[in-house]
Amino acid sequence: MYKFLILISMVFIFGCDDTTSASSNNNNNVNNTSSNNTDLCDSITCSIHSHCIVVENSPVCECDNGYSLQGEICLSDSLYFTNLPANISISWGRDGSFIPEYENDDGTDVVLTTGETDCSFPVSMNTDGSIYWTCGEPEICSQEVTVEMADDEEIYETEFLTIQCINHSPVFITTPSTDATVFSVFDFPFQCQDGDGDLLQLTKGADDTCNGTIHSQIAGTAIYSFEPGSPGNCRVSLSCSDTIDEDTLSFDVNIQDIRGWEGVSAGNHHTCAIVSGELFCWGENLNGQLGLGDFQDRLIPEKVISFSHVTNVSAGGNHTCAISDGELFCWGKNYYGQLGAGDTVDQNIPIKIGSDSNWFYVKAGISHTCGIKTTGELFCWGGNIFGQLGTGDTAQKTYPVKIGTFSDWVELTTGFGHSCGIRLSGEIYCWGYNEYGELGLDDTDPRYSPVKIGTDSTWEAVCSGMNHTCAIKSGELFCWGYNNWGQLGSGDTTGHFTPYHISSLSNVTRTGCGSYFSCALSNSTVYCFGRNDDFQLGTGDDVSHMEPVAQNQIQNPSSIDGGENHGCIYKEREIYCWGSNYSGQLGTGDTESKSTPTLLE
């Protein structure tokens, strides 16, 4: 789409320098020597509706008959434009228009005409006197406009209309760099914007053969997803429009082996993961947190039969939540109402929470849960004794409650008694328990509503442990809060009440937190630090480390997550877990702990 900003401008030059009079109606003491007058007048250029005269041997500009000086310009005494010049800040579509307005004191008929133009596109005038055009390429040009008496061509007014055409066509600003190769569910975010930077809605294009769905449209950012049924090829086609113009994006997808895991979430002593839209869980099941209809632990992954289109899962302390087809389901321990079902009854099978079908992200904590809808709105529920729900009080909530008025949340994390989230603006907010400075606000006072940390707007990811927080800002890792095991990576066990920069790591792109340990992906290598008595760092030993230590096992994984004493990473359809395994939370078929990342078969 093209939008046009019209600026009306007129330039009058009345003299060579500031000492020359702009105009004069006084003809006394005029030197009428023709040759002298001509020579003197050659030194100045008078504006439209004025001419040069010589007064006391100095050339000046005088308004023509029928015109008088108004301000610094000569206007017709009886006919002149009233809205030229003007500054008009109106946005049009492809076609722009402007209606000149004028004053005609004697009431006789007038004629509006257009004159010379340097515009590359046609500028025309309608019978009603409106000027209109259709822009071509972006440019700035001018159009002469004249109003004159119908019966006296000597009385007229001429101005210039400046037209600025700007290319505001929609354009995709996030695209895959190459044709995609996928193994299972394809999930890719896209953005499209116009020339003003306004984000536009996305739709499927006409030649889409992957039969995908577009969801999670937040502020113009959308995710395209599809589940391949078999190996082969298909084509993704997307379009975005501003109602005038349209941009399209198409690329081929090469579908390889469709078997394999798609993501993993580590709870306290249980783990869940997605494969081809189906959900599998394993480990401790004392409170029914595996969703399998009983309370028996599982040593290997077992399918949660309620689902076939799961897009997000989060394993919490002793409960689990997942999103399928935009609907939210939760199960497990519910003592604090952390399932959001409106009661405090434990559930060993998934139950649907509410009737909404526009959920896209959920995060389960120890005793509370938060989620984000496709509208960008944040909701929390469950235990709230420390204000971890962000509702402004400490009252328990057994159903999802909207938090604040923002509608651009994109990521969140839930710890023991605190929560943090990141908005689309890149700002990070925390709230809840703060005894150890886990909110990063340079004090230990609890907060019952989200509070922004600092002034930075480049935060990218965040995770939380029992009483500490880590986040990525501009590729750098920062941690704060409780540090008795070195989980902040600062080289000591001193707590930090504000974000502490882990300077030994650079180019950080992923982070994951366990209860008392943390991990981060730096330059394609996973580093972990903190408590390690159950091998939860995956470094091959059981010695706690107060500084980041490389795992040197799996390079460049897609995600990292930590439970109470175990961790898992996901890379290219494979899941690797390590640490404590007494409840079978590693999914290896036994209860033996693992000191390094071990492949889930």
Write the layout of secondary structure elements.
Layout: E1 2-9, H1 34-41, E2 50-55, E3 58-63, E4 67-70, E5 73-76, E6 79-81, E7 87-88, E8 95-98, E9 102-104, E10 110-117, E11 123-125, E12 131-134, E13 139-149, E14 152-167, E15 171-174, E16 180-182, E17 186-193, E18 202-204, E19 213-218, E20 221-226, E21 232-241, E22 246-255, E23 263-266, E24 270-275, E25 278-283, E26 298-304, E27 310-315, E28 319-324, E29 327-332, E30 347-352, E31 359-364, E32 368-373, E33 378-382, E34 397-402, E35 409-414, E36 418-423, E37 428-432, E38 447-452, E39 459-464, E40 468-473, E41 476-481, E42 496-501, E43 508-513, E44 517-522, E45 525-530, E46 545-550, E47 559-562, E48 566-571, E49 574-579, E50 594-599
Parallel strand pairs: 16-22
Antiparallel strand pairs: 1-7, 1-14, 2-3, 4-5, 6-9, 8-12, 10-13, 11-12, 13-14, 15-17, 17-20, 18-21, 19-20, 21-22, 23-24, 24-25, 25-26, 27-28, 28-29, 29-30, 31-32, 32-33, 33-34, 35-36, 36-37, 37-38, 39-40, 40-41, 41-42, 43-44, 44-45, 45-46, 47-48, 48-49, 49-50
